[in-house]
Amino acid sequence: MTTGTIERSRVANASEGCVTTDEQLISRLRDIATVRLNEPLGRHTTFGVGGPADVYVTVRSSAQLAATFAATHGAGAPCFILGSGSNILVGDAGIRGVVIDNQAKATRIEPLHIAPDSPVPAPRLIAASPDSEAVLVWAESGMSFAALARNLARQGVGGMEWACGIPGSVGGAAVYNAGAYGGSLSDVLLAATIADEHGATRYLPARELGLRYRSSIFLRHEIAPAVVLSLELAGVRGDAAALTAKVADIDTTRLSAQPRGRTGGSTFKNPDGHQAWELIDAVGLRGHRIGDAQVSDKHCNFFMNVGAARAADVFALMQEARRRVSERFGVELENEVELVGEGF
User: Fold this and answer.
1) What's this model's pTM, rounded to 2 decimal places?
2) How far is it, in rounded angstroms, from Cα 91 to Cα 219?
3) CA 311 to CA 189: how far, in whole Å?
């Protein structure tokens, strides 16, 4: 999952052209954070594929993130926010404009008390645990959601153990309403802080994010261009040893069912009434290969880079799965892995 740029349409197949000639923008960005030009994105994605970013900016705080986002928009350049590099397939021609590598990872834990008249209603976790001590977990959007869940368990804070294997960032979790093993972000989310294209920040209670199955107002383009800076999440105090053991059990289950290696995670969303992997398996694609892209033998909804795959190979494999499933079952598979950039 990505930290969440909110304006995908300006990134994919952008027509503005390369912005590396805009020395004024590059100089401004270098005043904010670290800048590299023509950075190969295969180095930064879990698939290990993807062409270059014209301008690659690494930010290490939410303030840098907001400032870089605003500067890029002020120059009229396309912008993409990169979180953990999972859940995306970057085209072989790369991404035009500015890619912001979000390394803002600060976190803190503090007591949580939700007053009866609070504009931020209690999430499901708190409502289901009325006798437990509640805590507020604040995390910047570049923090790994899996690392956050593991750290919380070790500190005796429960409620997010289900996220211990999610290969995405906290911000990406908000964009995609990440979930696994019976839990989802909507169960624990209190609020998000975002920044708009002018750098102004806004506090959004969870209900305003419109979280649905693997979707939010960001993905549905129901909000003006903005970037997720941080989240406020709810947890409950528990026994650290028991929580850590639960994380270990989830790890065992996940590793027994999901492949290791270079993959973007689940390739397709589960259609209503179906499991995507079962449909892909039923049409004979288990282990199927195009170039060095392969449908996993272990879990058919994981597509792998087993060598020197190109994004075009992975995309062709996705198209073949979509075609076969549609022809046989009349079911249209919807991407969970997002196509980003040019070259498809």
Assistant:
1) 0.88
2) 19
3) 34
